[in-house]
Amino acid sequence: MNGGGLRLYTILYLLFLYAPIALLPIFAFNSGTIIAFPLQGFTTDWFAQMWENATLRRSLANSLTIAVSASILATCFGIFAARASTRFRFPAKRGIMGLIMVPMVLPEIIVAMSLLVVLLGVGIQLSVLTVIVGHTLICMPYGIAILSTAFSSLDRSLEEAAYDLGETKWGAFRLVTLPLVMPGIISSLLISFTISLDEFIIAFFLSGNEPTLPTYIFSQLRFPKQVPTIMALGTVLVALSIVLLAVGEYFRRRGIARIGGKDTGGFL
Predict the structure, then answer these.
(1) Of 1, 35, 175, 228, which is the most exposed, with the fewest CB atoms less than 10 Å away?
(2) Secondary structure (3-state) at 268
(3) Which of 40-49, 70-79, 192-201 has the largest mean confidence?
(4) pTM across the whole model
């Protein structure tokens, strides 16, 4: 394929990927309730209705609580697992790490049904906490994959130098290792937060009477009059995603500059 063909393929691919997203703000500011051209007029009423919707605010609060909690827990557990897998040898290491990474490849509906059966079997009531457990299980393999790369690229001589200067293992880990792998930790937090925020299947099975943002959006798509409000909500979520992407890129470049590495290209 020549250069012109590759250029055309790239343009078509980007249009296919981003054109539907670009339509979100267009219809979010459209005064008509029907999602179709021609546009009726400019309005911000849908954003006002979105904020005045108590159920939506509750769903958003639940999703943010779940996403923040799951990202922190998944990253903390990921630090332990990545540290162990890159620095220590122990029996059945590959098998154990393989089992930890299994949720990354298992169908989420299987994981959701299994968790539902187990939680109900032991008498645990479905709530935001059960969704946090499920999302932590799903997000942890992604955090481990990111953090294992960060720990693997870390020069061990830096830790050994800290030991030679009298630091304990905990002191060397806190003062030397953690600052150097902080870009990986930030990346793990961001990817886990994003996965949890838009995850639907596990939230649908485990949330009980506590709706999350994806389950709320799914329930509202049956009502045509609610679609413009959903478009406004989607616009806000896209803007939030761009902000998170910018933050992740900032910390990535900062981490590369800190260790004196070469920037081979990132998100932006």
Answers:
(1) 1
(2) coil
(3) 70-79
(4) 0.80
